[in-house]
Amino acid sequence: MSLIYVVLMMRQNIWCWLFGILGSLLSIVIFIEAKLYSESILYAFYVAVGIYGWVKWYTKDHKGVPIRRWEMLNHLLAILAGLMGTMGLGLFFSSQTDAESPYYDAFTTSFSFVASFLEAHKILSGWIYWIILNLMTIYLYASKEIYFYAAYSGLLTILSVVGFIRWQSDYNRQVSNDVYFEELN
């Protein structure tokens, strides 16, 4: 279901959110059993962001929400938020639980929150965040011998590159259409 989610996300299809929600619900249990508690929280967050994304992407005219770019200041603030989340989650899970790799797990979780926010708002560079995060989770999952998820993260890395290229092309087409219509007015 999560794979269908990514493919539909690349196509900017609103139904991606339903598959993301369902796939995330199924993943929560696996991460609790593997003692990757931050990942469990992340997948619970994916359920919530799936609902939020569905609402955010829904438009009455069914034309969809446009892809946007962020200024560097927005990215710096997002990175700061991700680092603060990493420190908070890492500290909590390292001192209060039997979590393994609490800071690494917290980093991928915290920045996945950020990347999901970008995705829900159709920020083009969100795909870059996902490329980096998916590469990092390959190691995290392999170190916990969750090889299926490690392989899946490898596939997601490739799909994230394709998603970025596709959204970049769509963004360029969108911008050229906006310029054309502005010239007509």
In short:
The protein has 185 residues and is mainly alpha-helical. The chain has helices at 2-10, 16-33, 37-57, 72-96, 102-120, 126-143, 147-184.
Task: Reconstruct the topology from this structure.
Layout: H1 2-10, H2 16-33, H3 37-57, H4 72-96, H5 102-120, H6 126-143, H7 147-184
Helix pairs in contact: 1-2, 1-7, 2-3, 3-5, 4-5, 5-6, 6-7
Overview of the structural elements:
The chain is mostly helical and 185 residues long. It has one domain (2-184). It has 7 helices and no strands. The protein has helices at residues 2-10, 16-33, 37-57, 72-96, 102-120, 126-143, 147-184. It is globular, with a radius of gyration of 17 Å. 34% of the residues are buried.
Discrete helix count: 7
**Mind summarizing the main beta sheet?**
none
> What percentage of the residues does DSSP assign to strands (E)?
under 5%
Helix content: over 70%
Oligomer: single chain
Question: What are the defining features of this structure?
Answer:
single chain, 185 residues, mainly alpha, 7 helices, 80% helix, globular, disordered C terminus
